User: What shape does this take?
Amino acid sequence: MMKEALSFLVMGQDLAVDIDYVEMVIEIAKITPVPQSKVYIKGVVNLRGRIVPVIDLTDVLEFESSDEHSYDGILILKIDGEELGILVDRVSNVITFDDTKLELPASRTQRYSEFTKGIIKIGNKLIIYLDIAGLIRELESEKV
Assistant: This one.
């Protein structure tokens, strides 16, 4: 079955999420830190009067990152009625793919593999197709 996803880049890694969850992409805004929050919550942004938490996927998915790294945008998602921001280096494009041709990650040892629906191959590019709803539910259950 054909599906659409939005692809984006985080720390050199191509990722994608279901297009149905995407609300908008905004330029990096002032992120207000939240004291005593989880390490992956970078803070909150004021989005037209709505307070939206912003997370860094590098902390959740255990990607290598550096303190000097700065993101260019925030991908605003709506999952189960809740808004959430994800820090991104760049939003690439909307991709259409056949979900019956998804490949499984070669290794299940990486942290992100449990939150992956599969790998999308487009030309010579491999894009990790995230189960973002499952990931967020897992975070909310405080197991991460």
About this structure: The chain has one domain: 2-140.
